[in-house]
Specification:
This protein is mostly beta strands. The protein folds into two domains: about 160 residues; about 160 residues, no CATH class. The protein contains three helices and 24 strands. Strands 1, 4, 18, 19 and 22 form a five-stranded antiparallel beta sheet that branches. The protein has a four-stranded antiparallel beta sheet with strand order 2-21-14-17, with no helix packed on it. The radius of gyration is 31 Å and the shape is elongated.
């Protein structure tokens, strides 16, 4: 069995001290040069995560799950436009559905007014599900659906004049991967919006022809309030560990054909995302650890936070007002110095056995006899 020779904790906070290019709230450079943490031959470092805590300052709907493509045809002219759901934390699938339906309504109203001869002036939303009181624990299946009713200036029903109405939820945009299909309970389209839209790629059920004054929208699956149940704590020690990950967890950095392909990983831990905090407390002390067999000195370690696509957290939350989004985290690291069990290798010095008699000219007395 390996033997722990020594142990100590390192307490860190990414929001204290002078700002540096290597420490930006969700990225932290741990400099241990002054601590002079060294080991001897036959020993290795074991780094474990004891505690992690961070305020959840980012929103559940963000630039990684906010956009979808709306396709319509009017007067034989196709119109493809990218729409975004407002960023925020939504208390229920119902409130998220409200935000989505309003974005869709506003754009369809603009396009309907542009149709030649249109008398459309306003659009109402009704028949909305899930209901206001429906929650994830309730009786609803959480499938989003609603009806858009177009009216003229007098409040009478009016024809919208739009055909070929389709919603497309692509999973790859110039800004990175998008999980909007999970929020809306829609069918995922693998690829980018450069793909020509077709009926076979339709992400949601749209009916705009049964009643020329109405458009009904429905999802295929249950909607979700968020798409990231975990954030990932990564380190610069990836090449020094034996950790592995599937390529699907780093597609923001590497393009691989097989998402289940396993390769070397720099992931140290994954942290649960709660309503207000991202928090982890070790129960056994060894849930998340790294054995550093190729390091004799513990010096600099870079820690950074990403989402499930390998995108750094400040890139997910950044805006024109605050690039870092007030992100910061604290954690407790445990460092064990472990001695390997190697029965065929000696780590101790040769014992001092005195002068070898073969190289001594002294007279040796033994049992009362004197011999040279």
């Amino acid at each position: 069995m390996d033997k722990i020779i020594d142990s100590f904790n390192i307490y860190t906070c990414s929001d204290r001290g002078d700002a540096t290019p290597n420490s930006t709230g969700d990225e932290f450079e741990l400099n241990m040069n002054n601590a002079k943490i060294d080991i001897q031959k036959g020993q290795f470092f074991r780094l474990s995560l004891v505690n992690f805590n961070m305020f959840k300052s980012f929103t559940n709907v963000n630039k990684c799950n906010d956009r979808f493509l709306l396709h319509t045809t009017a007067g034989g002219v196709a119109n493809n436009g990218q729409l975004t759901i407002p960023h925020g934390n939504y208390k229920s699938v119902h409130s998220l559905m409200n935000a989505f339906s309003k974005v869709l309504r506003d754009e369809l109203l603009i396009r309907a007014k542009a149709v030649t001869g249109s008398t459309v002036d306003e659009c109402d939303i009704d028949n909305k599900t899930p209901d206001t009181n429906d929650t994830a624990e309730g009786d609803s299946d959480n499938i989003m659906s609603f009806r858009l009713k177009f009216k003229d200036v007098a409040g009478a029903d009016a024809a919208h004049g739009l055909t070929g109405i389709m919603i497309y939820c692509f999973d790859d945009y110039s800004t990175g991967m998008s999980d909007v299909y999970q929020l809306l309970g829609a069918k995922r389209i693998r690829g980018s919006p450069t793909i020509d839209p077709t009926d076979s790629l339709e992400s949601m059920i749209i009916d705009g022809q049964t009643n020329p004054n109405e458009i009904t929208v429905s999802g295929f699956f249950g909607g979700q309030r968020l798409t990231e149940p975990f954030i990932y704590l990564r380190t610069s020690l990836g090449n020094s560990t034996k950790n592995l990950e599937t390529s699907s967890l780093s597609d923001a950095k590497i393009t691989r054909g097989n998402v289940s392909e396993v390769h070397s990983s720099d992931i140290f831990a994954k942290i649960p995302v709660d309503v207000e905090f991202c928090h982890f407390d070790s129960q056994h002390g060894n849930e998340y650890f790294m054995n550093l067999h190729n390091m004799r000195h513990l010096t600099n370690i870079n820690f950074n936070l990403t989402n499930s696509h390998g995108k750094k957290l400040h890139e997910v939350t950044s805006s024109e007002h605050a690039d870092s989004g007030n992100l910061s985290f604290s954690m407790v690291l445990k460092v064990d110095i472990v001695e390997k069990n190697a029965p065929n290798e000696r780590h101790t010095q040769e014992p001092n056995r005195g002068i070898n008699p073969k190289f001594s000219n002294q007279i040796v007395t033994e049992s009362g006899l004197i011999r040279d």
